[in-house]
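Quick illustration for those who missed Monday's session on complexes.
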Amino acid sequence: MKKPWAGRFTEKTEKIVEGFTSSISFDKRLYECDIDGSIAHTKMLGKQKIISRREMELIIRGLDKVREEIRNNKFKFRDELEDIHMNIEHALIKKIGSAGGKLHTARSRNDQTALDLRLFMREEISSILKLITSFQRVLLDIAERHVDTLMPGYTHLQRAQPVLLAHHLLAYLEMLERDKARFNDCLKRVNVMPLGSAALAGTTLPVDRKYVAGLLKFPAISGNSMDAVSDRDFVIEFLSASGLLMAHLSRLAEELVLWSSAEFGFIELPDAYSTGSSIMPQKKNPDVPELIRGKTGRVFGSLIAMLTVLKGLPLSYNRDLQEDKEPVFDAVDTVKSCLSVLIKMLTEIKFKINVLKNAADAGFSTATDIAEYLVRKGIPFRNAHEAAGRIVRYCICKNKTLAGLSLKEFKGFSKLIERDIFKCLTVRESVNKKTSYGGTSKKNVLAALKKFKKLLK
Ligand code: ARG
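Prediction with arginine bound:
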């Protein structure tokens, strides 16, 4: 098959080179965007009288037919035509004849491929944003049902201080809110129209770039043709936002894995979202959260891949940039599938309220409250910390709980301790006294839930 660029060449391309340079196996995914972009470009060429009205109509009708064929799986993609752009153009020329050869006027694949990817990512970012919001709604829903559920809060994975389960879940709502902000911010840079930059220098033909941008609903056009064909910052920003989102999902996934273990026993994963072992009959494994944790690596990998592709490239377009698509596709698919499965699975998870409460009670988790009690009585925090530490050591030796000590025993550690100490010892009291802004008191948690309810409406 004759290449669109064959004019200058005397030898045929080696088969192995065709296979090596071809991107059609993956960039065919961009066909809708490619055709949308081509139709807008054609309308502009017609409006500017660079092509005739009849040619414009012929091309548009031809492109619509190609689109239908691809949608209905009737299109034969050819490796030797390299990429989606040349496959579609070739099919168009076969359909409508020489008028089809005018589509590529005042355009290069360099600005075309940048346009296609931006169109694609714009859509995908919107659907990722919607999925994050749905996921936040699921978390909010669970949090609302657990405004009274106590659990241990951890540092160093050691029981630290009691918190409300709702407070723990609200932490993820905050992370996801920042993730959305990052995607929204990146969207501003994705939403810039590069077409009309041509190969790298612009074109001598009287194009109207703003008109094309208007047709494709781009709020901005690129300001420098060389930058426009070689910029992939927007890809890196997207992959970075995706990486952080995955890091957040992975942290939650890790907690689900831990919490579903016999050692924690905080949750029961739904059977429908767990798998068994081929040898150990008793096993119920948390494969879904494990895979979310595991898939995080490939998104990080995509980010590093693109940073590496870009770092050594002289201006402007270089074929290395063709490597931009697979990392984007893979990140999009990974992020969307992880969010989708988490949304469904999380609604089915059962929290074992009693186990959570007992774990919160254990481990002297209100020792800090005793120290703060002594601070309120005027003792410097360092001394109060020391006294509370001695109380804990005493309990460990005597095999007692903090609430199990008598006032007399308490007084042995500080004369300032009175009967009201007993109000500081229960986990419920401890939680409800954490009224500092952002703390875990029920009052704060209810306010945070209200904030997110409004935000996610
Ligand atoms: N398939 C190419 C890509 O994705 C299209 C641009 C090719 N341009 C070129 N000068 N060979 O980057």
